[in-house]
C-alpha cells in the first residue's frame, strides 16, 4: 500500500480533524513509500521499535507517539535513539492519540466496553470531546465481583476506590489518564467510573461523592484500540499485521 494513501485513509477513518490534541496525529516519522507489513503497539518505546525492526515492519502504528506539547524540542538522548532506529530502518511511525480513544467503532473506549461486556455503550455527547463513555452491565454485580471481572479482562488487578456496597449496574469510563473525569461520571448518575490512572485527590472524590472508582492501568485500558486498528487495516488492505504488547504495569 502507498504511504500517502494509508495516511489519507487513517486521517479520514479516525476523524482526526474532530479533536484538539496534545500531539500531532498521523505520520510522525517518514519511512519507506510502500507499506506491506505493519506493527501496532501502545507506545513508541525503544522495545517496541526494536520488535518492529525484527518483524521487518514498513510502518509502526501507536497510540502514544512523539512530539507532545511541553516535551523538550531537541532530538537528543532517548528520543534521538528511538528516532534514529526508525530512520535507519526506514520505518514509518504513525501516532493516533485522542482520535483512537474516541473512535466509535474500534477506539479504546469502544473496545473496552466490548471486552468488558458493557451493553448500550455510547459516548457522552458534548462532554470532554466525546471521550467519556457510558453504558450498563446486563446484570448488576457486587463491587468485588466486578473488580475480579475487570482483572480477568485486563490481566491486572485494578485499584478500587470508594466505600459503598452499592451494586454496579451503570458505568462510565474513559481510557488512559482520565481520573479527573470522575465528576462527569457523578453527574451522569452512574455507579462506577473506570479509567487508567489515579491521583491522591481521586480517593476523596470517590468517597465523598459515593461512587466506585477503578484505576485499571493506563497501558492496560489502551491496548485494545491500536490492536483493533491494525486488524482493521489488515482486513481492509491485505496488510501483514503484528500486534506487539510491551507490558507496562502503569
From TrEMBL:
Domain of life: Bacteria
Keyword list, A-Z: Metal-binding
Residues the record lists as binding a divalent metal cation 2: 64
Entry keyword NADP: no
InterPro entries recorded: DUF34/NIF3, DUF34/NIF3_sf
One annotated GO molecular function: metal ion binding
Cellular component GO terms held in the UniProt record: cytoplasm
Record family assignment: Belongs to the GTP cyclohydrolase I type 2/NIF3 family.
NCBIfam families reported in the protein's UniProt record: YbgI_SA1388
This protein's name: GTP cyclohydrolase 1 type 2 homolog
Native organism taxonomy: Bacteria, Pseudomonadati, Pseudomonadota, Gammaproteobacteria, Alteromonadales
Amino acid at each position: 500500500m502507498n504511504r500517502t494513501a494509508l495516511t489519507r485513509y487513517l486521517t479520514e477513518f479516525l476523524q482526526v480533524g474532530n479533536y484538539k490534541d496534545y500531539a500531532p496525529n498521523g505520520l510522525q516519522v517518514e519511512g519507506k513509500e510502500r507499506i506491506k507489513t505493519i506493527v501496532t503497539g501502545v507506545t513508541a518505546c525503544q522495545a517496541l521499535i526494536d520488535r518492529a525492526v525484527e518483524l521487518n515492519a514498513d510502518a509502526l502504528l501507536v497510540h502514544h507517539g512523539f512530539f507532545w506539547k511541553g516535551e523538550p524540542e531537541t532530538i537528543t538522548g532517548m528520543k534521538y535513539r528511538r528516532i534514529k532506529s526508525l530512520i535507519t530502518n526506514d520505518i514509518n511511525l504513525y501516532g493516533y492519540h485522542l482520535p483512537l480513544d474516541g473512535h466509535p467503532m474500534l477506539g479504546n473506549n469502544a473496545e473496552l466496553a466490548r471486552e468488558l461486556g458493557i451493553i448500550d455503550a455510547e459516548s457522552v455527547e458534548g462532554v470532554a470531546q466525546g471521550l467519556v463513555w457510558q453504558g450498563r452491565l446486563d446484570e448488576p454485580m457486587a463491587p468485588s465481583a466486578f473488580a475480579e471481572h475487570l482483572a480477568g479482562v485486563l490481566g491486572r488487578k485494578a485499584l478500587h476506590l470508594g466505600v459503598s456496597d452499592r451494586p454496579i449496574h451503570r458505568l462510565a469510563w474513559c481510557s488512559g489518564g482520565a481520573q479527573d473525569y470522575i465528576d462527569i461520571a457523578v453527574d451522569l448518575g452512574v455507579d462506577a467510573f473506570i479509567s487508567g490512572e489515579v491521583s491522591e485527590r481521586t480517593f476523596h472524590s470517590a468517597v465523598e461523592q459515593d461512587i466506585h472508582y477503578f484505576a485499571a492501568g493506563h497501558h492496560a485500558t489502551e491496548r485494545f484500540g491500536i490492536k483493533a486498528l491494525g486488524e482493521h487495516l489488515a482486513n481492509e488492505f491485505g496488510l501483514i499485521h503484528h500486534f506487539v504488547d510491551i507490558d507496562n504495569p502503569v
